[in-house]
Structure formats: structure tokens, C-alpha cells
Amino acid sequence: MVAARANVSRVAVSRAFNPHASLKPEKRELILRIAQELNYTPDRAARALVSGRSHLVGVIVPDVCSHWESQEIDALTTALQNQGFATLLFKTRTDYSMDEKLLSYMRGFNPDSVIAFVENVKPATLARFLDRAVPIYVNYPQTDEDAEPPGAPLYDRLNILQRDGIDQAVALLEGFGARRIAYVSGLERSRADGARERTLRRVMADRGLEPPAVVRGDFSYEAAYQATIDLFRVGKGADAVFAANDVGAFGVIDALRHELGLRVPEDVKVVGFDDIAQSHWKSYNLTTVKFDLDARVRALVRLILRRLEDPGAPRFEETLNTRLVVRGTVG
Amino acid sequence: MVAARANVSRVAVSRAFNPHASLKPEKRELILRIAQELNYTPDRAARALVSGRSHLVGVIVPDVCSHWESQEIDALTTALQNQGFATLLFKTRTDYSMDEKLLSYMRGFNPDSVIAFVENVKPATLARFLDRAVPIYVNYPQTDEDAEPPGAPLYDRLNILQRDGIDQAVALLEGFGARRIAYVSGLERSRADGARERTLRRVMADRGLEPPAVVRGDFSYEAAYQATIDLFRVGKGADAVFAANDVGAFGVIDALRHELGLRVPEDVKVVGFDDIAQSHWKSYNLTTVKFDLDARVRALVRLILRRLEDPGAPRFEETLNTRLVVRGTVG
């Protein structure tokens, strides 16, 4: 009916509803207007059976409400919508691992792509639960851990190079006189956190500094708050604290100021990691290593589209860098 | 194959994959274990065509990364997963309205339910884009605006009663000597904000207080920060500031302390609304009107399940109350 009324072919109608398909803008507009008048929408369940595409992208996250992840999901959902995909959220268990029942359930939706972290579900496990999607993993490459076991399942990669931003942060801390730098870690099993700590150690060693005192957090405000109190009351304190993420850095700052009576940055300097939107709030005004959200989302969308264009291709990779954003908690 | 190997009927296998269907726990476990060994998952696209259920719940939000919404999406996704549904996110335009192209696109996924706000998309508009789902609206009932136009489309309601919490907040402010209470509003078109401001006016009038000075924000930290500076530099200031949400209250506190050199709570008292997780952070330690997240998510899930049980029933409603959480920004 839509094709007849618009005086176009059925193929044109189908293309009009597919944001990837090329079609003259006037033609698409006409078809969509008539389709709307007729209250016509192609059923996606039916189309998925024919086209093999679900137009769903699964995102596996431990915490939607963590600041970093919520900002990423927000930007990613907008970008995916613009490309004709909807975001399907899957939450991991409280220990951050992925329930196999949930994976099997996710498979039923037959997503076109899945974005995941190694600490939540291993590529070999995930591959068993995907019929055709090639998952995308966020990776923190380190020269000594980049080897892949032979026969590993295919997955695409977004590589984050943490070295530059951390190097700039330590240089700034040193430039303002800090020598004893402590690290308030993230979650123990997180690869992002592991790579961050190892990079910090290497950067400090290269600069001839003593290795950092490490106190364990879990990326939360509360754990970083308690870890900071331990560091100064039980441990030997520090000139500067590097937190594994911004929210942790907020906990560090509040513990220093409100519990330990220390001034930031005069007595202790603080650096975070992420540059979430809250970092510029005046109570914190945090100096932090930025990992650009827009660039990350653009890279993820590119990986999805490249893979859909060419399902059989070998690994696709995108690589992003970090840099220091200087605000008020150092110097 | 699964049925044969488990020595059960095909119906039992189908029930095992449907979390709503009753089945002996041992039987379900056996079937799921065998299904996993055989790498079998029923395809949801195929099942949706047969059962008419997509197991998708659409959530229409303006900002995934607003603190309140991210915490709600997180809790809702967990609760829905436990009931066998996946969360499908749809973002509104930057003016918070819902794009009709996106609505038509959402319809294609044939969601079992959709959760929405009137300021993002009106029930009459949304109804045109849903084949069978009855949407759920979050509602802020006021005696004078509860009339429904005849022939309005069916939708279910989660009612939030704001009066109790706001009444408790104003009583506490008055008890600590505040008389001139200002309101830093949320987004102009938001019904939640409108109802909040009207309720505050009524509560203050009932207590014989002058009407609040109102400065316009938009639920963001930045707008509340600027509005507070205007209130004190251009306007006449206030003894206390009631912010439309917690993030706005953080902006109010930071503007008072870092821009205007005023102490909170000694010089100016501050109250927020929501009780998001950040409200207990030491830099803010905010006294706020709590609108219980867990209770809200449980009510939403109940509304979804009741409607799926009985698609033809008249309106379902759930009603929740608010209460004051006292921390450090008043008295």
C-alpha cells in the first residue's frame, strides 16, 4: 500500500526504513510520510528473520549507574539510534561476571553486535553464545600481555593507550614537588585497573621515583574514601594520590578534607582518570586523565558498521589515546 | 533434540525458557543444562512472531547519564532481567521531545511495554505507535489537574505524591529559622518540576510563608549554579534554597560556597529532591526529599506484569509517597 501510494517500488519502501540503505532524501521523506499516514511500520521481528539482522546492539555492563558507564551508554545510544540500531542493556552479576543463563537469553535476541569487557565475560565464553555477532572488546594493550592463544575466537578491539595521560599526570605531580605518589586502585579483577597500575609503576620507575604505595578500592566513592583513611592513618600517607577513576578521586578528596583535615592540593595532590562530567564541579575541580568519550563512541560505532559490512574479515581494531586535563587538585 | 535428550515434552522445553511459565525447578534446571550442552537457544525473533511477545521493555529517557535516570535504568534493568525482559533504551531529542521517526522505529521492535514521561511524548501520540503495548506513565497527581479528556488512550500510571516530603522539608527549614525560601526549578516543560513548584507554593502558603522566589534551572548542575548567582547578585537572596533535584542542589551549594562566599547551612540552607547515591558524598551531604528508587522499580515491574496478564483491563495504578532524608545542609 505504501509503495502504491508513493508510486515507488517495494524495494524503495524497504530501503526507506533502513538508515544504511542509500535512497534520495526526497524519496525517503515521501515514503516515510505516507507510511506514517497509513500507520505502517515494518515489523522488525519479521524482518529480522528475513534479513538476519536484529538492529539490536547488546551492551554488557556491571553498573549502568556508574558515572562513566552511564555517560557512555547515553552517548552510544544516541549514536546507535542515528545509525538505526537500538541499545539492549545486559547487566552483569554483582561480582561483575556474566550469568550464562543471561548470555543464553541474550543470544535469543540475536544482536548484530555486542560490546563487552574481558573481566565480565571472556571472548571464548561469549563466542559460544553468539550466532553471528562478532563481539567488540575494550582492550588496554601492554607490550607484555598482547599475545593471543592460538584458535581464540574472533573479536574486534577498541585499544586504549593509557601511557601518555599517566605520563603527563606524573610529570605535573613531580613538577609541583610530589615524590611519594600513592595509587587507590579500582576493582581487583578489572583489566583497565591492572593496566593503569602497571603503567603508573613503569612511568614512575622511568622517572626514578619509588614504586607507588597501593591501597585497594573498587572504583566506588566509598571504597576510595576508606582506602584513603587507611593510607594516612595506618600507612605512611603520600604527597599525591592517583585514583583509578574520577569517582574514586572524589572519595579521596572528601576523605582528605573532611576526615583527615588535609588540604587539597596544598597538603596532598589528587589526580583521577576518565574526565566524567562531574569532574569540573567546583567542590572537586579535579585534575584528571581524559579518555575522550565522543572519540570512544565514534570508534565503537565504526567497529560495528565495519563488521556488519564484512562479517568474515579478520580482526578490526581502533586505537585511542589519553591526555591530562589540568584543573585545581594539583599545584 | 533437547526434549528427547531430557525425556520431556516440547512444551516443557518452551516453558523452561520462559521465566513466567511455571515448571518444577529440577525440570527447568535439567532442560537448561541440556540445552546449554547442545548449544540450543530458541530464537526470540521466531518466538515473538508466534507468541506475540517480544520480551522487550522500551524505556524513553531524555538523559541516560542524568544521575537519577541512570540509577533508575540500572535498577529497572536488573529487575526486568529477573523477570525475563530486556531493556531497550530510546533517547529523546535534545529538547526532550520524542522524534516520530524514532517512535515508528520503536514500534518495529514491538515492545511488551513502554515507560514514558508526558513531557517527552504524549499518551495520544505514543498510542499511535504501539501495536499492543499499554504504556506506563509516571504521574504527579494534583487535585486540580487530574481530569482526563474523554476517549483518551489507555495507559497505566505510577503516581508520585510529592506533598509529604516537601511538607517535612519546609517544616525543618522553618524550624531552623528560614523564612525566605527560594526555588531553583527544573526544566520548564517538566511535569515533575511543575508539580513540585506548585506543591511547594501550597505548603508555604498553608504555613503562612511568603511565596518562594523562583529562579529557573533545568535540572543540571550548571543551570542551578548560574541561577543561584542570579538569585543572590541580581535578586534579593534567600535564607534557604529548595532545588528541583539533587544535582541542581549540588550546583546551588557550590555557587553559594565557591562563588558567593556563603556558608551552607549556617548562612543559607539547601534542600534537594530525589536522594540519589551522590547525596551522601561528604562535599554535599545533602538534606533531600527521597523518592524511593527500589519501591519505584518494584511498582513499575508490577505494572508491566499485571498488564501482560490482563491486556484488556482498565487502568492500573500504583502510588508512591516521598519523605525527607535529613543530612547536613539544613540546621
* Strands of chain A, total number: 12
CATH fold-level name of the largest domain in chain A: Rossmann fold
Q: Judging by the overall fold, what is the CATH architecture of the largest domain in chain A? A: 3-Layer(aba) Sandwich
Distance between the termini of chain A: 69 Å
Largest interface: A-B, 64 and 63 residues
Indicate the percent of residues in helices of chain A.
Answer: 40-55%
CATH level 1 class label of the largest domain in chain A: Alpha Beta
Keywords (chains A, B): DNA-binding, Transcription, Transcription regulation
Domain HTH lacI-type (chains A, B): 1-51
Protein name (chains A, B): LacI family DNA-binding transcriptional regulator
InterPro entries (chains A, B): HTH_LacI, LacI/GalR-like_sensor, Lambda_DNA-bd_dom_sf, Peripla_BP_I
Quick take:
The structure is a homodimer of 331-residue chains. Chain A is built from 12 helices and 12 strands.
Description:
2 copies of one chain form a homodimer. By secondary structure, chain A is of the alpha/beta class. Chain A has 3 domains: 2-42, no CATH class; 52-159 and 293-319, Rossmann fold (3-Layer(aba) Sandwich), CATH 3.40.50.2300; 163-291, 3-Layer(aba) Sandwich (Rossmann fold). Helix content of chain A is 41%, strand content 17%. Chain A contains 12 helices and 12 strands. Chain A has helices at residues 2-6, 10-16, 25-37, 44-51, 67-82, 100-108, 123-128, 163-175, 191-206, 221-233, 246-259, 293-309, and strands spanning 56-61, 86-91, 113-116, 136-139, 156-161, 181-184, 213-215, 240-243, 269-274, 287-290, 317-321, 323-325. In chain A, the strands form 2 sheets. Chain A has a 6-stranded parallel sheet. In chain A, α7 (123-128) links the parallel β3 and β4 (136-139). The longest helix of chain A is centred in the C-terminal third of the chain and has 17 residues, at 293-309. The model of chain A has no long low-confidence stretch (mean pLDDT 88).
